[in-house]
Design brief:
2 copies of one chain form a homodimer. By secondary structure, the first copy, chain A, is α+β, with helices and mostly antiparallel strands. The first copy, chain A, has 2 domains: 4-190 and 391-395, Ribosomal Protein S5, domain 2; 194-383, Alpha-Beta Plaits, CATH 3.30.70. Chain A is built from 8 helices and 16 strands. In chain A, the strands form 4 sheets. Chain A has a 6-stranded mixed sheet. Chain A is globular and about 70 Å long. The interface between A and B is medium-sized, with 33 and 33 residues.
Chain lengths: 408, 408
């Protein structure tokens, strides 16, 4: 008997123009367009195996080995139902000989290769991997943009993880959301030396969830409407141009301004929402000073910070500057030995925790104090990456019995 | 020989609707109107003695016993020149027998009774006291609003310290600034049970000066223009009504929203400006939770936080709630013994540092962690107060020789 099963992985993406606010909470239609960089799946990814089998009792899902309930009418159920609908309409209705997979229950196993404690949102890569694995299972002849419409209904920013490179989520105008989808602004190959350094920041405060936080902003922030109508549209145009021109200085200026403005409207909310803490602020001070020195030398901005709904910094920079920035961060935020995975061999086997830290000429060291070990819990170095990948049988997360394999 | 000398004191004011941005930096004309509560001079004040004497060589100023240079064309020189001009036009030109004090050099001694380390801006009370003492010295037949026009040119927010109670600074529209002045919305006696608790927050970061910071915001924040044009005008109307109605719930809601929005536009600046730190954020979390409980009980908001260009919190509340709020703050921010000056006898001689802290019924204690001693360096309890006071000879800061007395 045939086994209908497919495995896919999908990347994390970190926005440069931030998504904050829904105009339709059920369909997850945003109040403004957004734009992100897709990060490399070699380092951070969600992997999902989906199997359709008429013998299964009902749809089931396991996340990192633990079963999660698929709630009726919930986001997960919506995504699965939409994928089954596409299977029926695009495949089975047109080719009557194809198996009626849309009528079979599915078992889905998903795994994130980064710990929850890292504070990286896994919903974007997770829903993108889910949709990608089902698209592969169902042999859907549809574009990533079409799939992005479905992933969007799982988690808004998931739609941007359907592409590699530099990705825009166009807000769209239709009430049914069919034009609220992701498009690729430029592939990874267009500007492959965009690297990212994720600074995982310790936080002793439980943050406001982005889902509830963004709606409070929509309801109470007087500034959000101005941002939506008068700021973001031009920034989308400007940052797309910066990417196409490989103009890092402009890319950095817009990215930082938009991170600041997202946190500004969060603060303009009642009651105010804070995601950044004193460590986040200190990292900003370092990057501002690093850029000040670089601009003074006529080199333009060399780094761009951006913060999502949490205290972690993501620093975008060109490959050639990463080592210098890692050393700068480590100088102010001492790391535990062996904590940095030097995947690009920047330190050639030397422990970054023992790095003396290069002195950037002209850098005013007083812009931040030196923090205690653990203030920045870890550093992850990655780069712009590709879109979802179809994986082979050796990567499957479901055993022959259709249940999750025990992870070694 | 006659001695021409006068001494005045003037209060600190803390804005509920924030002043942030100038449309004319020389005349100090603001981009929006603002509104403040004048605090009681019994607790916080600047005192200034001015003497005019033809034997003096030139205008001189001593601040807290140290001589400060009066720079040509600087703000201090402008204020003194404007006061001399008023003396000439309003007194000497009209009454030729009056002595020509406007032609005499002045010696000015000023003293703030609160330490610079408290992080309270002394420029507002300082310029208000300067202008008040000169107005008294010169026997000027002019209103506090007229004097406020001159104090404004020393330090913008100083104009609001020319009145007691609840004071609006109307931005005005004239290019010469003659209609950019302070008016009293309501006197202290209208709502005397508005109290203020200042939480002096420790900071290890040198902040951005408000003078340079606000102009960076004017130049770079896309959100500021919306605030100026579309948010502040209505808030000025609404908070004035709340004050006239003694509607604390509305007063608190607007005050907190405007503090948040001021910090939001600071954050929307390039590079971003942060004045609040993790301790400031924790105090906000406590007040938000305190109000949540109170609103749930049908009592409305009982407290309002507001933050100026620094990490200190000022909490406005009605007299009846101060003790509860002090205990709440002390619970999360332990105080050193003997550090709290219990000027209103809330604790009847007991040391607030030893207070167990009352438990507010229904309060979720997990909204903030308990900080170490020193995170909040001190608490100052005061209340709405009166405007500048003319003081008697026993308060003079200048000796018979016309030079500052040595302060005992």
């Amino acid at each position: 008997m045939a086994v209908y099963q497919a495995t896919a992985s999908a990347p994390v993406n970190i926005a440069c123009i931030k998504y904050w606010g829904k105009r339709d909470t059920k369909l997850i239609l945003p109040t403004n367009s957004s734009l992100s960089v897709t990060l490399d799946q070699d380092h951070l990814r969600s992997t999902t195996t989906s199997r359709a089998d008429p013998s299964f009792k009902h749809d089931r899902l396991w996340l990192n080995g633990e079963e999660e309930e698929i709630k009726d009418g919930g986001r997960m159920a919506t995504c699965i139902a939409e994928m089954k609908r596409l299977r029926k309409e695009e495949v089975e209705d047109k080719q009557p000989n194809e198996p009626k997979l849309s009528t079979y229950p599915v078992h889905i196993a998903s795994f994130n290769n980064f710990p929850t404690a890292a504070g990286l949102a896994s919903s974007a890569s997770g829903f993108a991997a889910l949709v990608s694995s089902l698209a592969q299972l169902y042999q859907l002849p549809v574009s990533p943009s079409t799939l992005s419409v479905i992933a969007r209904q799982g988690s808004g920013s998931a739609c941007r993880s359907l592409f590699g490179g530099f990705v825009a989520w166009e807000q769209g105008t239709k009430p049914d959301g069919s034009d609220s989808l992701a498009v690729q602004v430029a592939p990874q190959s267009h500007w492959p030396d965009i690297h990212a350094l994720i600074c995982v920041v310790s936080d002793d405060k439980k943050g406001t969830s982005s889902t509830s936080g963004m709606q409070r902003t929509v309801e109470t922030s007087p500034l959000l409407q101005h941002r939506i109508k008068h700021v973001v549209p031009q920034r989308m145009v400007d940052i797309s141009k910066a990417i196409l021109d490989r103009d890092f200085d402009a890319f950095a200026a817009i990215t930082m301004a938009d991170s600041n403005q997202f946190h500004a409207v969060a603060l303009d909310t009642e009651p105010p929402i804070f995601y950044m803490n004193d460590v986040s602020r200190a990292i900003i001070a370092l990057i501002v000073e690093y850029n000040r020195v670089s601009v003074a030398k006529g080199l333009g901005r060399k780094a761009a910070y951006t913060y999502d709904a949490g205290p972690n910094a993501v620093i975008y920079t060109k490959k050639e500057n990463v080592k210098e920035i890692v050393e700068l961060i480590v100088k102010y935020f001492p790391q535990k030995e062996g904590s940095f995975k030097d995947v690009f061999g920047l330190f050639g086997g030397a422990d970054v925790a023992k790095s003396e830290g290069s002195v950037v000429e002209g850098f005013n060291e007083a812009v931040a104090k030196k923090f205690e070990v653990g203030a920045v819990k870890g550093l992850i170095h990655t780069k712009v990456g590709d879109g979802p990948r179809a994986l082979g049988k050796e990567e499957t997360l479901l055993g022959d019995d259709g249940f999750p394999k025990t992870l070694a």
